[in-house]
Amino acid sequence: MRMNLEYGPDDALLVVDMQNDFCEGGALAVAGGAALVPGINAEIAAARAAGALVVASRDWHPVDHASFTHRGGPWPVHCVQDTQGAAFHPDLALPDEAIRVSKATAFDADAYSAFDGTGLGGYLREKGVSRVVVCGLALDVCVKATALEARREGFATRLLAPLTAAVDPQGTPAVLDELRDAGVAIDGEASS
Ligand code: VGL
Ligand code: ZN
């Protein structure tokens, strides 16, 4: 169940948007989303045991957010602040000390990357983090944007590909190529 990655105190495991709305039964469900939870929990436990930082981002929109279709955006209503759909998956084993990062909280702008508008890059540097390990949902939207911005922020970046799932799985090879070209190391094969 574990990826073959050794964590250390200079690492941050960044779990992207493992929320009910992105899992089966949610408003913007990604096929295979819920199935990632046990594997991600194993990575959280390993990261924690090695003294790595654990960070969990969440999509956290106000009602009537600009990304919703009724406002002219591309997505159905999802991850509205304080709703059940915006909650982390109930089986996600986030320790108390995990850092929670809320993104895309403004009415008038979307943000796919966990670094976008959150100050996360500066915070990780303050904490001495040099490498960011990314997993979660959705590979082709927020995971991709987060991994690309981690690289732009100057972090060594790894993607745990089997611990991601895509809105459009057909596009996965192209997404992995784009990440590789940007200098993101890819662990394992994508599950579909
Ligand atoms: C996401 C679509 C809209 C994601 C967020 O977390 O991947 N996708 N908002
Ligand atoms: Zn969103």
In summary, what is this structure?
It contains 4 helices and 6 strands. The protein has about 190 residues and is an alpha/beta fold. It has one domain (about 10-60, about 85-185): Isochorismatase-like (Rossmann fold, 3-Layer(aba) Sandwich), CATH 3.40.50.
What topology does this entry show?
Elements: E1 11-16, H1 37-49, E2 53-59, E3 99-103, H2 120-126, E4 131-137, H3 139-152, E5 156-165, H4 172-181, E6 185-187
Parallel strand pairs: 1-2, 1-4, 2-3, 4-5, 5-6
The protein binds pyrazine-2-carboxylic acid and zinc ion.
Task: Describe this entry's structure for a reader.
By secondary structure, this protein is of the alpha/beta class. The mean pLDDT is 96. The protein has helices spanning 37-49, 120-126, 139-152, 172-181; strands at residues 11-16, 53-59, 99-103, 131-137, 156-165, 185-187. A six-stranded parallel β-sheet has the order 3-2-1-4-5-6, sandwiched between helices. It is globular and about 45 Å long. 23% of the residues lie in helices and 20% in strands. The chain has one domain (11-59, 87-187): Rossmann fold (3-Layer(aba) Sandwich), CATH 3.40.50. Bound molecules: pyrazine-2-carboxylic acid and zinc ion. Zinc ion binds at residues 59, 61, 67, 75, 78-79, 104. Zinc ion is lined by residues 59, 61, 67, 75, 78-79, 104.
